[in-house]
Design a protein that fits this description.
The protein is of the alpha/beta class and 391 residues long. The chain contains 17 helices and 8 strands. It is globular and about 65 Å long. The chain binds flavin-adenine dinucleotide.
């Protein structure tokens, strides 16, 4: 089985079945630029300039990096992308990728925008929305709640929770599940706490609310075990979103600056070990949980498939999902969806100028995930050559 799936991961005809020759050529040029640090720097400077001076370069951005990594400027624009994925049994999770405004009005707008997305998802039969708590409360208050300076009775926490409840009520009405993203460690306790409170309300029959666990943090598996035990006692289901973690450099730098022990694993190997063990534990307890993994790692995806097989779980089991970003790791998405596994692509959308910070992050991808862009580039080149040889 491993060999078959590995072959499928290398099958570029399948991975790019949805891409025309023209789109593939554009992706080739985009990843050529991302492959050269100097060109990436120039590209970033260009994007920043467009953002700052509001230069009229929308068309160039739209036809290059934006179209590769984003679904469109509005949800309606994204519909074509959703349909093209649906043909291959791949689901879509649109994410409004604009930087949140840090004011009460900004938080209420984020809530309203999220509810609009949820209503759209309900109509289209799309099952997930991801929520960033920093869109619903400022980082400073989240940090104070996490450190205990503000209590869970404080007006800040109560209004934050209220916004989430409004959002979750609308999710339940629309049959949409809510993934609560993990963010920086110094605000994470507030996020964990609210997620568990919400699970107690909404996860009585199945997992509607998911909390994200970052395996680059030490102690992640212990936290999952403890939370799952509590959920068993209190009779609710535990929704587990599992990732490696996106803020490694920032976390390490802060720990160094403020002279505390870094909360991050000492090596990639130890993060991988925590990830695999957490996967195994989650699958072995799937009767009381759901598992949603966000990863571009082929080994992890294969490991999960083997665990499902060993535990007699069907690929179509609705408690288990694998997710990749739109424009990345299509080889995993298309290979596993062709075998019946539940795949969902995270699809950023938003007005071009407002998504520029997201696009810069994608272009600037930190050193820890550079390998994924290289892998994508290699596969694109392989597919272009395969198509050339057909003629
Ligand atoms: C659909 C989706 C949703 C996501 N949601 C979130 C989220 O809510 N919160 C969040 O934080 N991230 C999120 N991420 C990002 C994720 O955490 C990873 O940063 C990213 O996916 C790369 O990890 P990987 O498993 O794909 O690949 P890999 O290439 O196998 O792993 C790279 C990751 O390993 C870890 N790592 C690398 N080097 C070291 C080292 N020296 N020591 C210790 N650890 C190391 C880092 O976490 C790095 O990002 C999401 C990703 C996806 C695809």
């Amino acid at each position: 089985m491993d060999k078959n799936i590995k072959n499928l991961f290398n099958n570029t005809e399948l991975a790019f079945t949805n891409k025309s020759n023209f789109e593939l050529t554009k992706a080739y040029f985009l990843f050529s630029v991302l492959d050269y640090p100097l060109l990436t720097k120039i590209g970033n400077a260009f994007l920043l300039l467009v953002l700052k001076l509001r230069l009229p370069f929308k068309v160039i951005i739209k036809n290059t990096i934006f179209n590769h990594f984003c679904g469109g400027e509005t949800l309606e624009d994204c519909k074509e992308t959703f349909l093209s994925l649906k043909k291959y049994n791949i689901s879509a999770m649109p994410e409004y990728s604009i930087e949140a405004e840090s004011s009460v009005e900004g938080f209420e707008n984020y809530k309203k925008d999220s509810i609009n997305i949820i209503n759209f998802l309900g109509k289209e039969g799309l099952p997930f929305i991801a929520i960033k708590c920093t869109g619903l409360l400022d980082i400073d208050s989240l940090e104070k709640i996490s450190s205990g300076e503000y209590t869970y009775d404080s007006k800040e926490y109560i209004s934050f929770k209220k916004r989430l409840i409004d959002l979750c009520d609308s999710a339940v009405r629309n049959n949409v599940q809510v993934l609560i993203d993990a963010e920086e460690t110094w605000i994470q306790d507030a996020i964990d706490n609210v997620a568990i409170e919400l699970m107690q309300i909404y996860n009585r029959k199945s997992s509607v609310i998911f909390l994200t666990h970052q395996c680059y943090r030490t102690g992640t598996l212990s936290k999952i075990k403890k939370n799952l035990e509590v959920s068993k006692e209190k009779k609710y289901f535990y929704g587990i979103k599992l990732v490696r973690g996106a803020y490694m450099e920032k976390e390490r730098n802060r720990a160094l600056q403020k002279s505390y022990t870094s909360p991050i694993q000492i090596s990639k190997l130890s993060t991988d070990k925590e990830y695999n063990e957490s996967l195994k534990y989650s699958i072995e307890n799937i009767d009381r949980a759901s598992l949603w993994i966000g990863s571009h790692n082929e080994e992890s995806s294969l490991y999960l498939i083997n665990l499902m097989n060993d535990n007699n779980l069907r690929p179509q089991d609705k408690r288990i999902w694998l997710s990749q970003l739109y424009g990345m790791s299509d080889n995993i998405s298309y290979a596993l969806s062709s075998l019946g596994y539940n795949i969902v692509k995270l699809i950023p959308f938003g007005p071009i100028d407002k998504t520029i910070p997201y696009l810069i992050r994608r272009a600037n991808e930190n050193s820890s995930v550079k390998g994924q862009s290289n892998r994508q580039f290699t596969l694109i080149k392989k597919e272009i050559n395969r198509r050339k040889n057909l003629n």
